[in-house]
Design brief:
By secondary structure, chain A is mainly α. Chain A is built from ten helices and no strands. Helix content of chain A is about 85%, strand content about 0%. The two termini of chain A are about 25 Å apart. The longest helix of chain B has 17 residues. The radius of gyration of chain B is 18 Å and the shape is globular. Classes of the chains: A mainly alpha (about 240), B alpha/beta (about 240). Chain B: One of its GO terms (molecular function) is ATP binding.
């Protein structure tokens, strides 16, 4: 059923796209039709695959590092009042800065290669991971804490046996959000400065009026993001308490 | 486990300067069930939480002491209306939670005996969501017994159950917690009349001790004197309101 509705939505979107192209008669370097894009995609499949691979590596490393960093930060924040006073305002401030503005800086510091893109992905997912996990850690049902208190549990044991497991669903939703954001971060990094990756390919195709290739790369990125989100969704199902 | 002591609670509590309850003294007999009966908002749960050493949000001035002079909060087991089972943990993990939280080795034999005694042996590997309300409260009772504390504090543990399951749980708890100093906080006159070896009604006016029925607890649900006591308790509650 879910698959059928996705299929129907895809067919509908393609039909609308094709209808706009046919009715307006726009030249193909302004708006290529779905058939042309599909053809270009097939012809350039190895080129696209190569760049997708680069972007995928950046996103996956970014996702892992960002999640780890976010989890550690949230634990520190939950554990120490001093950390909350000192770090929390800073965390919100950094979130208020547009990540896009930081991209040139990261390229300057980390170079044109992989790491400036990983850093972008990390930066963009760090906040959602940290804040969702931290919220989860601070919202342990008070009854559990009362019970633990009457059982003479140490704060460490409460954290390990009660607060962290109780916060895992919140962390799972943070990670699902991160799976959507991380590719955006990596692509922004590629736009600012790179010689590889889907972001680079899009920019390159756009510059040469190869709008069909630009579309093919963009759609590939979209499909990649959806697959990544589905994967993370499934991987976090246990954490979210959806599966037993 | 140390022998079950008498407890004496005396004092007054205020919330932001407003009196929650005026000075009162409650004695909880050693090795017996004391029922503290009252409507919502009279502060009966606060009394129980103060004894347990839990956060209440109220300012308490007074004294909570055990007859043997030893610390009270270190020797209580606590059971609430919400069964407080960890949803991600299995029945056996929930029952042995105390030992795991203290980093102690779990006494597996004792755990399994208690699970069997609570008739949960077919549900050991299940998560709380797979159990009925009565089964969940039986797990909570097994967890409470696993703690093996001389003082047991029960905060309306059966009030969310249906009538039949509630009566079953009352019988089971009365039998299982024999010999311990039990404080049961409840708003249900029927429960107090069935289980109380000492019954105190708490209202805005203070504490009123009531004579429990003569039959040994847990009393039959259709015992005439128990029903009379239930009526008298309800009357007291309504007069005060």
């Amino acid at each position: 059923m879910k698959f059928l509705s996705a299929l129907a939505a895809t067919i509908f979107a393609l039909a609308v796209w094709q209808a706009i192209v046919s009715m307006t008669g726009l030249p193909k370097f302004i708006l290529p039709g779905p058939a042309l894009v599909a053809e270009t995609w097939w012809q350039s499949r190895w080129l696209i695959a190569e760049h997708t691979w680069i972007t995928a590596i950046e996103v996956l490393i970014g996702l892992c590092c960002g999640t780890l960093l976010g989890v550690v930060t949230a634990l520190q924040l939950a554990n120490s009042r001093a950390a909350r006073v000192l770090v929390q305002p800073m965390l919100i401030f950094t979130q208020a800065l547009p990540v896009f503005a930081l991209a040139p800086l990261l390229t300057l510091w980390l170079g044109y290669g992989l790491w400036s893109k990983v850093a972008m992905a990390v930066l963009i997912i760090y906040f959602p991971i940290t804040s969702s996990f931290f919220d989860g850690l601070m919202r342990t049902p008070p009854g559990f804490l009362d019970l633990a208190r009457t059982m003479q549990a140490s704060p460490r044991a409460v954290l390990w046996h009660i607060r962290i497991p109780a916060a895992l669903p919140a962390l799972a939703s943070g990670m699902r959000l991160a799976a959507v954001y991380a590719p955006i971060g990596a692509v922004i990094g590629e736009w600012v400065g790179s010689s590889q990756g889907l972001g680079y390919l899009m920019l390159l195709a756009n510059g040469r009026a190869k709008t069909d290739l630009m579309f093919a790369a963009m759609l590939t990125l979209g499909v990649f993001s959806i697959l990544l989100h589905m994967f993370v969704r499934r991987a976090t199902a246990r954490m979210a308490g959806e599966a037993r | 486990m140390t022998p079950a002591p008498d407890l004496t609670f005396s004092g007054t509590a205020t919330i932001n300067g407003v009196t929650l309850f005026a000075p009162l003294t409650l004695t909880i007999g050693a090795g017996a069930w004391t029922c503290l009966l009252g409507g919502s908002g009279v502060g009966k749960t606060t009394v129980l939480r103060l004894i347990a050493g839990l956060e209440t949000g109220a300012e308490f001035s007074g004294q909570i002491a055990a007859s043997d002079g030893q610390s009270v909060p270190d020797r209580v087991a606590y059971m609430a209306q919400d069964d407080l089972l960890l949803p991600w943990a299995t029945v056996v993990q929930n029952v042995s939670l105390g030992a795991r939280l203290r980093g102690e080795v779990v006494d597996l034999d004792r755990r399994d005996r208690l699970i069997e005694r609570m008739r949960l042996q077919d549900h050991m590997a299940k998560k709380p969501a797979e159990l009925s309300g009565g089964q969940r409260q039986r797990v909570a009772l097994a967890r409470t017994l696993m703690e093996d504390r001389p003082i047991v504090l029960l905060d309306e543990p059966f009030s969310a159950l249906d009538a039949r399951t509630r009566a079953d749980m009352q019988d089971l708890a009365a039998e299982a917690l024999q010999g311990r100093t039990v404080l049961l906080v409840t708003h249900d006159p029927a429960e107090a009349a069935r289980l109380g070896q000492s019954i105190t009604v708490m209202t805005q006016l203070g504490l009123t001790p009531c004579d429990p029925p003569k039959a040994p607890a847990p009393r039959h649900v259709d015992d005439l004197e128990t029903l009379e006591t239930q009526g008298a308790l309800l009357k007291l509650l309504r007069e005060a309101a």
